[in-house]
Amino acid sequence: MNRNNVYIAGAGILSPLGIGLEATEKALRENRSGIGPLGVFSIRHPPALPVAEVQELADSPLPRTHTLAIQAALQAMGDRREAPDAIILGTTTGGILSTEQLLTDKVQNPQKYSYHGLSTVAEAVARQLRCPGKALTVSTACSSGAVAISLALKMLQSGKAEWILAGGADSLSHLTYFGFHSLQLVDPGGSKPFDKNRQGMSVGEGAALLLLTTTKPEKPLAQLLGAGLSCDAYHAAAPQPQGKGAAKAMQTALENAGLTADDIDYISLHGTGTADNDRAEAKAVSDLFPQPPPLSSIKGATGHGLAAAGAIEAVVAALAIEKSFLPANTGYREADPELQLTPLDKPVSHSTAAVLSNSFGFGGNNGCLIIGRPDTFAAVRPLLQSAPLSILGTSCISGAGNKEASMSRLLQGKSMAGMLDLDAISKNLPTRKIRRLKRLSRLALSLAAAAYDDSGLTQPPKSVFMGTGWGALSETYDFLKKLRDTEEQFPSPIDFVGSVHNSAAGQVAIMFGSTMANITTSGGDYSFEQAVLAAETMLDDTSPPAFVLSADEGHDQFSPLFDPSIQPGAPLADGGGGFCLCRKAIPGKVALQIPFYRPAAAPGVLDALVNALGGAERLRNQNGLILAGIPACSSKDGEQQLLEFLNKTMLSVPVLHYREMSGEFASASALAAVMAVHFLETGLFPPPLASQGREGLLPAAKKVLVLGLGTTITAMEFWIQ
Amino acid sequence: MDTLTEELKNKLIEILNLTDVSPEDIDENEQLVGGELGIDSIDVLEMVVMVEKEYGVVINNKEIGEKVFSTLAALAEYIHSNSPRLSS
């Protein structure tokens, strides 16, 4: 089997054009637009701006995004009975539409908010399909779907999975409807990308998932030939005006697929219909394609499905190849002389072998995919990932302060739980540049700055992988509160831009000029582990150093509602950890790997964990210390899992329950990872909490295992090379 | 007008979180966007929201917006001439 060849075995799609491949193709051939009146919710001051809604979505007790994703998943799986090895889903809204209603109704019961988190969408799909593997969540704003598919491509090429279901889903919500409106980015007449009179986008929704595999199916829809990620590192919301980041992502995708611009038969443009996006994209396309192939944006038909958009367009690219037709740039009437770009004004029949599909998002997050006719192009060079991930620098923030303060407290056997003062977090950051940033972005910037400082690197890392369980709670809360307090009239555009999960990683990229891959993952209590998985998957032997960060903020109102480990009224804790790392063997440096990540409900999960760690004997020989992360919400299950693991392996090493020291917050495992590195570097680890004992001595040449327990079982190993 | 200009300076500092700026640091005749204060397009939109909320003046046209937000003095002038809440 040639694992470089990744096939699209199936596809599911729900968009404002219809449900399923047939309905989508029909609407596109008819050049019909799905943009229309708002019906999903009502607003206080009609008339509403036009939106792009999915019609006739089946009723479900789950939030709308979850329902969209599950329906797309079932379509993509078709007749296939075996669950995929992994699910990688892009989403920006998660359960926010339902959360908004609960907040309006002043519901205080945290259980009602159990579908709020972004990760619950992928987890709901995984449960529906009984997927025993990873369910990962990517949130890079409007490029989420394309970035999720890119991550799946690399994971398949690395041989870590054979079948992955990947794509994106988002539902309409007050947050996105009023947010884009507050930025004056919505066209009151409906989106008409690249038209001279374009005035913006149409906020939309939808879901699309691709069943991807390295096992050649009997009738593949198409082949996923390559992917390219980049970051503008320019502005929180506006694209780099020359389209430099966009061009870089397109170029990277071409190189990844082993193709040149001449090989591309059709470009599926991001084309949102906003003045700035379309101008920057047109420049980027003109730079790379002196004589561009036929091109169009379908967002005049589908609206902008946000995290779903890149996945919807990937499915349409596959359709274009299979059915030999190119969709029109719906709504386009009058050429904009400034753009020097002529999109298709009507659908055409056209034999197509390779499609470039563009997706760009807030935070300057760009993701481009290349989709081709099966077995038409030569296989590309294999992914080179022979070296381990070496840790060059670390940082952390806890209630006790920075790394020095936190580790000092830890080695005294004392808890470092709490929330550090915002001024202390911002101490080393430039005041003017962070004035718009609230707690999560400041945590991330501070972590990145300290990790870079600790690394001794002379050039900042080029890519960013960031985990966050709950995202920018302050901005989300403030946006929704102001929306409500002003009767939906005056929400804050600054808060909307800051509310996206990837805003913090985007800020890191801007501050450090990190123009390569920029991926934000969200996996509840396992968000840091997901960021490590993303880094492990994306970084190859030639990649420059990267940031891997994870942070969560404590928020008085939202944290107790959303995070089931936080008891109402209990003092909050927050913070996170930061790393500079690269894929290179460096003797003397601590290395990191993440050999295990599976839902706890998967059959035989603990045996699989022991196997993934090399078996009980190897563990007994090599392991010196376990840091166990058991979120308070899963304390009973987590303790049982830990006991079983210790019984299976007959390990008798010290076990530190790190949440007793870090406090309860989703990114606590990033703090644990910093502890692991610190213990290896100093040889010391702390006495159990509340004991008067001295710190322990870690035997040389031993590994430290950071276990995540509870609803998901994860294992990260750290050792000195 | 002077009162309005002073009021706007304070509001600007507040909504844009210019913690290291005091009202007297702001020259109302200096370029507002892209100038010393580091104000960009998102800040302008935040000011648009404030101007509509506080003074009932709607600015939803890019050309007018560029003119109105060229300087703080221009903004004060535009609000002064268009606000139903400020009868001069």
Quick summary:
The complex is a heterodimer of chains A (721) and B (88). Chain A is of the alpha/beta class. Chain A has 23 helices and 27 strands.
Task: Provide structural commentary.
The complex is a heterodimer of chains A (721) and B (88). Chain A is α/β, with parallel strands linked by helices and 721 residues long. Chain A has 2 domains: 367 residues, Peroxisomal Thiolase, Chain A, domain 1 (3-Layer(aba) Sandwich); 332 residues, Thiolase/Chalcone synthase (Peroxisomal Thiolase, Chain A, domain 1), CATH 3.40.47.10. Chain A contains 23 helices and 27 strands. In chain A, the strands form 5 sheets. In chain A, strands 1, 2, 5, 6, 7, 8, 9, 10, 11, 14 and 15 form an 11-stranded mixed beta sheet that branches. In chain A, strands 18-17-19-20-16-21-27-26-22-23 form a 10-stranded mixed beta sheet, sandwiched between helices. The longest helix of chain A is centred in the middle third of the chain and has 17 residues. Chain A is globular and about 75 Å long. The model of chain A has no long low-confidence stretch (mean pLDDT 96). In chain B, 53% of the residues lie in helices and 0% in strands. The N and C termini of chain B lie close together (10 Å). The mean pLDDT of chain B is 90. At the A-B interface, helix 15 of A face helix 2 of B.
